[in-house]
Amino acid sequence: MQKYLFKNIVVVNEGKIQTLDVLVNGNRIEKIAGQINEKGKVTEMDGTGKHLLPGVIDDQVHFREPGLTHKADIYTESKAAVAGGTTSFMEMPNTIPNTLTLDLLEDKYQLAKHHSLANYSFFMGVSNDNADEALRASSLKENIPGLKIFMGSSTGNMLVSNHSTLNRIFSETELLIATHCEDERIIQRNYQQLKSIRPNLEPGDHPLIRDAEACFESSLVAIQFAKKYDTRLHILHISTEKELQLFSNMLPLRDKKITAEVCVHHLHFTADDYAQLGYRIKCNPAIKSAENKKALWEALLDDRLDVIATDHAPHLLSEKEGPYEKAHAGLPLVQHSLSLMLHYHKQGFISLEKIAEKMSHAVAECFRIRDRGYIREGYYADLVVADLAKPATVAKENLLYKCGWSPLEGFRFPSGVTHTMVSGQMIYENGAFNESHKGERLLYNR
After folding, report:
1. Separation of alpha carbons 118 and 360, rounded Å
2. Tens digits of per-residue pLDDT, 337-353?
3. Which of 60, 198, 262, 339 could form a disulfide with 309 if both were Cys (CB 3.0 to 4.6 A apart)?
4. pTM of the entire structure?
């Protein structure tokens, strides 16, 4: 088995920053110590001046395969993920066809097995009329992250508005339920009111249509269902200050039954950015005013918000063009999520320890991922080397997304990822990829 030794590297893990040696043997971390002298065949890396973090686990991405591969696929987007330090992902069911049966779910796992450079996992989708099939997924509770419910706008048959279906799913499933929460009735009311005043809507109208009330009311309903049935609920991409009153930091994460995610674009952009970026930053839920961004940062740091993700959702630039009704919602972000958080570390917003916690440790705890998310002896070697003194500018020529663009183009990061190890294999090294190895399926302790 291949051995790899990181020497004299600054390890960021479990609330501590220490200069250590880390030995990887096969796909696992074998030893962590102040000094390791390994005999025999071993590949050494001098980590002097660099930081070693646990690989990022992104609990919400849209890699568009099957059915939408003109703009993204599992291979291209997992490659972009690995280049940015994301070693594992959980992908959403609104592909074509929607992932609403166990057979379609298994088809996606087979695609990833042969094409994903990162470790992979896929949510089972819920619709108004697939409750029986969704509940059958409980038999896979050690093998899938959970059920995904769109309690707001979506594509195809993915909007779940039937309360009898919601009652049944929340009361009977043994799986975690992840929700997209926006109230469709409020959205449509806001749209019609604004359209009657201004027929030609603009990008800046998006947060007025998908406003804080739409998010809050839908999140409240999801939480009421979860509390009624004692269901494990995870609400995705919280975007408003108002919603934060629904979440608590009174319990340790492992004991929480209701958890929440925040996405990097809601921590970075504000509604002021529509003037420059237009529909390029149109996404659901919408990027909102600056006071919401400030409140999200505060809630992230005091643990009302539990994990950081991307909701990576690529579209072609031609699909992002107006008018309002035709411009697709979603941003490609997975290549730069860790670099963006390292930028905010340099700005004094967040510590390195908190980045490791919210992007790796907490995701593993939230989903009960088996033997990942930490730099621990016996755990899978999902590791990222970051150089905090290596600036890089986002440009079209260094983007790996199939869609070929980023809302961060022109942004200069003060730090960057130099190496990414996935399940013990060095997949990314200073811009070069080793594609002879593929990622592994995530497993869950349930």
Report:
1. 14
2. 999 999 999 999 999 99
3. 60
4. 0.97
